[in-house]
Specification:
With 325 residues, this protein is an alpha+beta fold. The protein has helices at residues 24-27, 44-54, 58-66, 122-129, 132-135, 139-152, 154-172, 179-211, 219-285, 293-296, 300-322, and strands spanning 4-11, 14-18, 33-40, 72-76, 79-90, 95-106, 109-116.
């Protein structure tokens, strides 16, 4: 039972009492009550007990137990099963850590099940309890409150990814491009893709929830869900922009590395041309011909050295003006 974080009964939007799991069915007999239970990585035995108390569908319980689902919403009679992907930023690892939340929403119950890296929903519960007028709307409002909390926590992750991208851009356009920057770009693209997998399906989930024509989600609660939908759209667009900027950053980094390699190649070619001139002249004098007038000329040696230096200096000046050196 250590996986039960909270199990509370509410009446008219106000907290009535903490309820043991085995007594939930007794509370549900009272028409003006609903139960909000929070679980964290429950085992199969606990899930089966919760299933029995709330009469949950077998397929939904199997999904909640495996905990490797993409965001989705499914209807089972008069209840909903919603899967969300949570995300938060690990500053030490510079990585997006994702978890999973499963929600069972019925006419008189709300069940949240957290798996993996996920913030506690205690703050959500406390904030909802401070607004009994809204909590009076029932489990539909609990659904909104949790989705809103999950979506709000995407924003800091996007901000952290943008900060890392800015740091990458400074390195890319710094004095000396590095190959290591390419690896960092690929790593960041992977983190952005991880967040994309969490957010993109949520667009359709929120769109469906705000259009549900059933009493489980009150009409005025759908207005709140529409606001969440707008936030998800904005985050999704921000992620798409980040992906495009990372692609451009990768192309720019590869182009700068290529230019740097071209500069090195041009420099080596220029020095090779400069060195080739004295090598050629010295090679002529090293052929040991007897009939070479310069050999008997007293200024022959200084003339040859001077000619080498003049030719090398001229080539050096030319390559400097051409930007090769």
């Amino acid at each position: 039972m250590g996986a039960v974080v909270n199990c509370v009964a509410y009446q008219d939007g106000k907290r009535v009492a903490d309820v043991p799991v085995e007594d939930i069915s007794e509370v549900l007999k009272q028409d003006d009550h609903f139960v909000w239970i929070g679980l964290h990585e429950p085992d199969e035995a606990l899930l089966r007990q919760v299933q029995e108390e709330f009469c949950l569908h077998d397929l939904a319980i199997e999904d909640a137990l495996r905990a490797h689902q993409r965001p989705k919403v499914e209807e089972y009679g008069d209840s909903l099963f919603v899967v969300l992907r949570t995300a938060h930023w690990n500053g030490d690892r510079h990585a997006v850590e994702c978890g999973e939340t499963h929600l069972f929403i019925g006419p008189r119950y709300a069940i949240s099940i957290r798996h993996g890296a996920s913030l506690s929903y205690t703050a959500v519960r406390e904030r909802a309890e401070k607004a009994p007028k809204l909590l009076r709307k029932g489990p539909g409002f609990v659904l909104y409150a949790i989705i809103d909390f999950v979506v709000d926590n995407y924003f800091p992750v996007v901000d952290a990814l943008e900060c890392d991208l800015e740091a990458l851009e400074r390195d890319i356009f710094g004095p000396k491009p590095k190959r290591e920057t390419t690896e960092r770009i690929y790593d960041l693209k992977g983190e952005v893709l991880e967040l994309k997998h969490a957010v993109a399906p949520l667009v359709e989930v929120c769109n469906r929830l705000q259009r549900f024509e059933q009493p489980l989600i009150a009409k005025d609660t759908r207005l709140y869900l529409r606001d969440v939908y707008d936030h998800v759209i904005r985050i999704n667009e921000s992620i798409d922009i980040l992906r495009e900027l990372l692609t451009q950053a990768l192309e720019a980094n590869l182009a700068l590395i290529s230019l740097q390699q071209n500069d090195i190649t041009k420099g080596l070619a220029a020095w090779a041309a400069i060195i080739a001139v004295p090598t050629m002249i010295a090679g002529v004098y090293g052929m040991n011909f007897e009939l070479m007038p310069e050999l008997s000329w007293r200024f022959g040696y200084p003339f040859a050295i001077g000619m080498m230096l003049a030719a090398c200096g001229s080539l050096y000046a030319y390559f400097r003006r051409a930007g090769w050196l």
